[in-house]
Amino acid sequence: MTTLHSTAEPGTSAVDGLGAEYQPFDHHGMYDFFARARTAEPVFFCPEINYWVVTRREDILPLLQDAERMSAEIALAPATPLSPEATAILKTGMTAEPTQVNCDPPKHTRIRAVAGRFLNMKRYASLEPEIRRLAREALDELEASQDRGQVDLVADLVYEFPARVLFLLMGIPVEDAPKIKTWADYRLLMTFGNLSPEEQTRGARDMVAYWQYCVDLVSDRNAKPQDDYASFLIEHRHQAEPPLSDNEVTSLVFGLLLAGHETTTNLSANALLALLTHRDSWQAICKDKSAIPAAVEEVLRFASSVVCWRRRPRIDIDVCGVPIPAGSNILLALGSANYDEDIFPEPDRFDISRTNAREHLSFGRGTHFCIGAPLARLELTVLLEEITARFPDVALIEDQTPEYIRTIAFRGPKRLFATLR
Length: 421
Ligand code: HEM
What we know:
The chain is of the alpha+beta class. The chain has one domain (18-66, 73-419): CATH 1.10.630.10. Helix content is 49%, strand content 7%. It has helices spanning 18-21, 30-40, 57-65, 84-93, 107-118, 121-126, 128-145, 154-158, 161-170, 177-192, 197-223, 229-235, 246-259, 262-277, 279-287, 292-302, 334-337, 373-390; strands at residues 43-46, 51-54, 70-71, 151-152, 309-313, 317-319, 322-324, 330-332, 395-396, 417-419. Strands 1-2-8-5-3 form a 5-stranded mixed β-sheet. A 3-stranded antiparallel β-sheet has the order 4-10-9. The relative contact order is 0.18. Bound molecules: protoporphyrin IX containing FE (HEM). Protoporphyrin IX containing FE (HEM) binds next to helix 13, helix 14 and helix 18.
């Protein structure tokens, strides 16, 4: 294919083509934009964020899988440069270090080996009865909130539920959910969004409070071990060589306390939006529960909560004919890969009987493949089983245009107004 691409170097603003048009924080029309990019300019440079954007699955996949040439160190770098005030607050208030998603081998390998002994399929599966109990409780609360005539499926259902599930692994009391969700929201926007300097100051304070919460949790588990993630890491720290330090354990807890619920909150909201706007699919899963796992996979393809992820090449590379210098920032448009017509015929069609939906890249691939993928699938499956059984007639209020959170990577509606019956 002939490719047109920007001739500008990173950091310059003289960019022609799609790089000048791309709105990295705005998810309306994102899939249509990427469809154009895959055909006309599959790799382009976006000066607004100083990133090269890669849109075709066949280009994204090898980059995800190449941990030798591609560093993950920028995975959690602020997408918008932080103000001096926010930087100072973070510098004095926290000592988080790369341990997983933004950490490269060999350190990543050493740490993931221990974390993976706790975060695995067997443990997630053992939580299923508790996840179901939490889903039923969340639906009780949803029903109670319909006094107002309508409900918001985000605020009243999927906002806290995934955090409460994650807390089962972390040994955190459910009462802490509201403050942890607020801290996590800010952390997400500090890392992937474009907050104003004033908002960054507030966000930095929240991140420090969040970090301190994790420091206290790890110190508590050092003194009084429980059956939870931090206690497991402390107990098994010597299985890593050198052993896991307290700061590494705290960084792992800090990392999971974001990755483990912001992702699933947004995925669940995307799932409800997709299924309720494709009523035939909703009715199909109401009628036949066994269709739910395939529906979950199609939601992950059609409306993932993580639509872009980041890498930095260690050497000069060539992607689809476009030279990208070592040390550049690269945004891998996972959401675009999930609509790549070379793999997914009629990608705009939401089709819960699609046989290859699992080929999506929503959980990444290779060294950093999402360690929580089985939990995310399980949580959404249980939630859908419960809500379809209890509220099969739930319907979105007509004529609402979902407003999306503004980040370069996470995608999910802020509100979804609905009636239950
Ligand atoms: C819909 C839900 C989720 C999505 C879309 C998602 C997506 C991702 C993506 C794209 C990555 C990076 C892959 C890469 O760099 O190649 C990742 C990594 C990770 N995810 Fe998830 N995730 C989800 C849920 C979860 C949950 C529930 C947990 C925790 C229980 C979790 C924990 C992690 C961790 C710890 C990593 C870092 C893995 C590593 O670098 O070794 N995620 N996830």
